[in-house]
Amino acid sequence: MTAIQSEYSLWWRRPEDEVLATCEELGIGVVPYSPLGKGFLTGTIDANTVFTEGDIRATIPRFADDMRRANHALVEKISAIATQLEATPGQIALAWLLAQKPWIAPIPGTRKLHRLEENIAAADLQLPADSLAEIQDAADTVAIEGGRYPEHLERMTNL
Question: Which residue intervals define the domain NADP-dependent oxidoreductase in the entry (predicted)?
Answer without folding.
Answer: 3-138
